[in-house]
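Reply to thread "Modeling small-molecule complexes from scratch"

Following up on the discussion above, here's a worked example others can learn from. I took a protein sequence and the SMILES for zinc ion and predicted the complex. Inputs first:
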Amino acid sequence: MSEVKAVKMPTCNWCGRMILPGEGAVHFSCPECGEVTIWRCEKCRLFGRPYKCAKCGFKGP
Ligand SMILES: [Zn+2]
Ligand SMILES: [Zn+2]
C-alpha cells in the first residue's frame, strides 16, 4: 500500500483559512527569524490584520 500525502495547502496566519491559488494572498519569511513562512489571505491583507510568527513570536501589521 502506498501512502499518498496530500499537498499541504498554506493557511492564513491570522484567520487560518486555506489559501487558494490565484487569490490575492501574500507570503513572506518572518522578518525576525526568517525561518517561518507567513501567509496572509486576501482579506486579512485588505483589513491590515496582524500576524504572529509561530517560532519567535514576532508580531507585525
Ligand atoms: Zn486571513
Ligand atoms: Zn519568526
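What I'd highlight from this example: The pocket of zinc ion (ligand 1) is lined by residues 12, 14-15, 17, 41, 43-44 (CB under 6 Å). The two ends are 46 Å apart (CA to CA). Questions welcome below.
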